Amino acid sequence: MAHTRTTQPVLTAHAAGLRGCRTCGRANAASATTCRRCGAGLSHVPGLQLVWAWLIAGMVVYVPANVYPMLRTQTMGRTQDNTILGGVFDLVQSGYWLVAFIVFFASIAIPVAKFVVIAYLALAVQWRWPMRGHARHRLYEVVEFIGRWSMIDVFVVAILSALVQFNLAATVAPGIAAVSFALSVAFTMLAAQAFDPRLIWRAAESPMQ
Amino acid sequence: MTTKTLQTAPLAAAAARSHTPGDSTAGLVVCPTCDALYKLTPVPVGTRGRCTRCGTTLSFPRERAMSRIVMLAATSLVLLSAAVFFPFLELSAGGMTRRASVFDAALAFSTGLTLPLALATLAFIILLPALRLTLIIYALAPMSMGWYAAPRAITAFRWAEAMRPWAMAEIFVIGVAVALVKVAGLASVHLGIAFWAMVLLVLINVLNDNFMCRLTLWRTLEQRSRF
Ligand SMILES: [Zn+2]
Ligand SMILES: [Zn+2]
Fold first, then answer.
1. Of A18, A196, B22, B184, which one has the greatest count of Cβ atoms within 10 A?
2. pTM, entire model
3. Which range of residues forms the domain containing residue A155?
């Protein structure tokens, strides 16, 4: 059903010699650089360079986020460093399966899936891999919606530090990983925003023979 | 809810090309996700006009949409200020009680390397949501009372839209719940007033987002702007 719909020719603003605004949906003249209605910038040729740049930056800072401690707990002179994965294991051992699942999902599953999906979408558009626009469009929507939720673990670290800092014979301090993880989430959000979903449909319209 | 698709417009597009650009393109609407071009035909109030190719809502006129959006934004702003000044978690152990507010959480990062993170956290949880709500109220409140739009309302609303992904109050709420479980073994913990204010805030935001069709709002904003 979806397939038959995408193969039907649809007149796009691009094909009609117009430039559509992604913010407000107004059709602008092909020579326009800013939208007549909302003033948003209209890109000439939506490129993928910016997407790749943010994505690679996000992947690079994700490495220290996993290697270095996210949380440093001091109890009676004993220092314990917890990485992201270590925190998940602790929760599992304490029997908090649901919370362990939420943290694992937000801090590991979502970021990794985001890297893979954005890279896949960019490659698919670049190399015009044959595929229906609908499935890719769905993927893009999911990535855009879910990306921000990875920030949970950073907030948890902040809350724990604030709560336990007043010394209950224990202090909790955020580690370097909290910074690099927050940066990684921000960079991949920027990568997803830089990706123009109209490219998905444009590539689906004219697959390489 | 009934769905009506908008009319495709090859003729209108041809007309737009041959005449002077600008005015003739005003009656067209371009799908922001797939670039499909439509001629803007009025749909009945309360029905959605969708893109036939990707399903994005292109038109969703509703009665008194403006005033409802402004009311919800104003309520959110009140709740947000409550969330800042009241504690969201109370922790007691060994006869001591500790209350943590949103500010405490953000400032937990305020040592050394993590200082930029403190500022970012503060921005994500409080500053950006508050600024976004203020901009929405500024841009839409005069129109909701039947006046023309405020000066630079279009710029204000564009900024509010750009801030949307970066306002993360709802993610913070889930973070509080996770933190609660993590310290549950350490001490007895209670959820504070601010937590419930934030939960309410999240629900209102979900309502607000489903309520407004951005493209319809933009068209109204353009029509009512006289500056
Ligand atoms: Zn625009
Ligand atoms: Zn569409």
1. A18
2. 0.83
3. 45-204
Span A79-130, pLDDT tens digits = 778 888 888 888 888 888 888 888 888 889 999 999 999 999 899 888 877 7
Domain count, chain B: 2
How far does residue A24's CA lie from ligand 1's centre (Å)? 4
DSSP character string of A64-104: HHHHS-SEEEEETTEEEEE-HHHHHHHHHHTT-HHHHHHHH
Residues B121 and A151: their CA atoms lie apart, in Å, by: 10
- Nearest-by-CA chain B residue for A71: B109
Q: Does residue B83 share a domain with residue B27?
A: no
B128 touches chain A (CB under 8 A): no
Report the C-alpha gap between B46 and B24 in whole angstroms.
27
How confident is residue A191, by pLDDT bands cut at 50, 70 and 90?
very high
Complex confidence, ipTM: 0.80
Long-range contacts of A176-179 (CB under 8 A, 24+ apart): A176/A64, A176/A68, A176/A69, A176/B113, A177/A64, A177/A65, A177/A66, A177/A67, A177/A68, A177/A69, A177/A70, A177/A83, A177/A84, A178/A70, A178/A71, A178/A154, A178/B109, A178/B114, A178/B117, A179/B113, A179/B114, A179/B116, A179/B117
Tell me the per-residue pLDDT of A154-170, one tens digit each, with 9 for 90 and over. Answer: 888 888 777 765 555 56
Average pLDDT over residues A127-137: 76
Residue of A nearest to B10 (CA): A11
The answer to whether position A116 is within a domain reads yes
User: Which strands form B96-100's sheet, in the order they lie side by side?
Assistant: B96-100, B89-93, B188-191
Same domain for A40 and A56, yes or no, is no
Same domain, A31 and A91: no
**Contacts with A149 from chain B: Cβ below 8 Å:** 171, 174
